[in-house]
Structures are given as C-alpha cells and as structure tokens.
Write a structure and sequence with these properties.
Strand order of the largest sheet: 3-4-5-6-7-8
Radius of gyration: 16 Å
Largest sheet: 6 strands, mixed
Structural class: alpha/beta
Strand content: 15-25%
Number of strands: 10
Helix content: 25-40%
Oligomer: single chain
Distance between the termini: 32 Å
Order of helices and strands: EHEEEEHEHEHEEHEH
Shape: globular
Length: 213
C-alpha cells in the first residue's frame, strides 16, 4: 500500500490539484494520499482526511480527522486532533524558507510538545535541498519518533514524488496505520523541481485570486 502523507488539493490557494484529476492520478499510481490543505479539512473517498494547521507557533498536519481544527494555540490544536483519535505529523519542521516552519519557533525541543508527536516528515519533496530533510531525520531519531515522507504535492505532476510502501491497513483506523508504519522499510523519495516552489506556487495563488475558487 503506497501512502503519500502530504498532498494538497485545489482547496489550498497555493495548489491547483483538481479533485477529479488528483483521484485519477492517485488511482493510476496506486497511491493513497493524506490530504493536507491549509486550515481546511478535505474529505475524499480515495484519501485519508487531514489538515495542515497554522497555529501561533508554527504549522503541523492532523491526519485521520473527522472535524476541522480551528484552534490557533498549538497545544489546543494538537489536543483537538487527539480528541478525534487523529495523529500528529510534523511537516518540513526544519525548512527555514517557510514562514510557519516549526524551526522558526521555540518549540521543537519542548518536552510537552514532543510527547504529542506521532510522526516526523523526514523527507519533503518541496524542500529546495536535502539539508532540512536530513535535520528532520536526525530529530526523529534523537527522540525516537516514527518517520514519514510526503510529496507536499501542489500540482498534478508532483503527486508521488515521495511515498511509503506499507502493509495493508484500514484507512479509517489510525492505530493500524501507525502499526504498519513501524514496520515500513520502503521509502521512495525525490526532490521536485525548484520552479514548482519558486514560480508555479506564486502563479497558483494569482489564479486562485482571479478565479476566486
């Protein structure tokens, strides 16, 4: 079972991944995505529902959610995820280029914060180089936290840049997912083209503004 833990849809203003095309590509590549739209919970029949949540101390992804998270205090938001039985995934935590990256806030080594983390994204395909990914992997190993990867896809051609091969599990059961992830040994990763990050994302925002999606 192929899992991409970080995929945006057209519901994020920085993305132009149409739902129908996203489904078609994921089915073709046999990838199950975790949706990670910014501050929006996107539920799709072919995906695991998630949300990339912006808080007062950086952003994280809540996955296996049933309700949208609106809290801005990071600990309150994390608690809301746990109350739903969801899991907490840290995306690109050391990518200084992103203004809401957790490394920009004094929290990554907070003991109470670490207790709440389920998975660290050790490879994000939209980092400009591997340095932030290497730091994330070192962080996960230091604190003995499970590792995940994501394409951070904003465009159709980015889907599947990074994914994991896991044993089959119930898509509605986060505990089964975590159990399967513990046994994962096949991570497929590659960095995307810099133009996707530096140029196309800006164009996407302008398209959203004009079209008012």
């Amino acid at each position: 079972m192929k899992i991409d833990m970080h995929v945006h849809t057209i519901n994020s203003r920085c993305s132009i991944n149409p739902i129908k095309l996203l489904k078609k590509i994921c089915n073709l590549k046999k990838i199950t995505p975790i949706t990670a739209d910014h501050n929006v919970l996107t539920k799709l029949d072919f995906a695991i529902a998630g949300e990339e949540i912006a808080t007062n101390r950086g952003e994280f992804i809540g996955a296996f959610l049933t309700e949208q998270i609106n809290e801005k205090d990071i600990f309150e938001a994390m608690d809301k995820v746990k109350e739903q039985g969801g899991i907490i995934y840290l995306p690109h935590p050391f990518d200084q280029r992103r203004r809401r990256a957790l490394c920009r806030f004094d929290i990554l080594h907070d003991k109470e914060f670490i207790k709440k983390i389920d998975i660290v994204e050790i490879f994000n395909s939209r980092c400009l180089n591997n340095h932030p990914n290497n730091e994330a992997e070192e962080y996960a190993e230091k604190y003995n936290i499970l590792k995940g990867v994501g394409s951070d896809s904003h465009f159709p051609w980015e889907i599947g840049n990074s994914y994991m091969e896991l044993d089959e599990f119930d898509k509605d059961n986060p505990k089964e997912f975590l159990k399967s992830l513990k046994n994962a040994n096949k991570f497929h990763v590659k960095l995307g083209a810099p133009a996707n990050i530096l140029l196309y994302s800006k164009i996407s925002k302008k398209i959203h503004k004009i079209a008012k999606f």
